[in-house]
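ingest -> validate -> predict -> emit
validate: passed (alphabet ok, no gaps, 252 aa)
predict: started
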Amino acid sequence: MALLALDFDGVICDSAAEIAASAWRCARQIWPQSFPSNNAPPEAITAFCQMRPFLETGYQSILMLKMLQEKLAFPAFSEHFNEHLERLMQAIGLGPVELKRLFGDCRDQWIERDNLSWLQTHRFYPGVIPALGQALARKQVAIITTKQQRFVKLLLAGQNIDFPVEQIWGLEQQKKKEIVLKQLISEGQQDIIFVEDRLPTLELVSSLPALDSVQLLYATWGYGTSKEHHRCLQSSRIKSLNLPKFISLLEE
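emit:
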């Protein structure tokens, strides 16, 4: 039986608005004068969602909000993102470890104070939750994500999905997705279907001979750009997948 290995943000859940709102709370602690309001204004969330395709992992969203506030142009995100991340981290004296901790703490405080509003900030792609429930009853399913495992579990529980925590590979494991896939193969899982909305991740996996057996599907309903959609069509290794076909994959 094939194992369905699914990304979370951009495949199962659209969390862009929640990420922006959580990041705003963090940014306010770092730059209080620049982020004076308690909650992210709608225009900040809208601007963040437009740049969401360039985000790789949650803590970077804090720095992305600062970049947006600096009114940096599109190429700063599409071409020079990592340079600006490094510039801002040096300026504030905080690295990825500290920013990840801050991001998780801000989410925890929000959840503790108002769990319902946190849950309601997320949107699940149409039809995915019932199909995922069916898949869990009949298939092997794992989630491989840069989101913290406990947040994935909490969000799915809010949708009445009891997803086995041991099948969620999250930020806590500190393992890149290609490493998780290699581990699954080493444990005897030879038939893996990997669904991911971040094309560079799929391209990296496709370049590794040890992962030649993994079927790679690009989630076109996620956070990818039109340029990435076109690039995927040129690949002989990575196949495009639309939302209806993904739901069929879960249900079949």
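The chain has a mean pLDDT of 95.
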